[in-house]
Write a structure and sequence with these properties.
- The chain is 27% helix and 23% strand.
- By secondary structure, the chain is of the alpha+beta class.
- The radius of gyration is 13 Å and the shape is globular.
- The chain starts with 6 loop residues before the first helix and ends with a strand.
- The relative contact order is 0.25.
Amino acid sequence: MLEKLTKEDVLKAEEHFGVKLPREYVDLLHIQNGGYLLKDSINIDIEIDNGHTLPIDYLLGIKENKRYHGDEVSI
């Protein structure tokens, strides 16, 4: 897990990627900024290869110039 997420981190990431991150995702990152989750999947409203289950290996956090799991997860 990365250091605590700040509002500035979110704004920098949104500007860098040219997107507005969903509020629910940002809220989750304020609780846990990256890392493994207790559940490895979530149920979604649309059907995909696994029915209505979306597998999630881990959550990518946001922090400038930081790495997590050897992958670049920041701007």
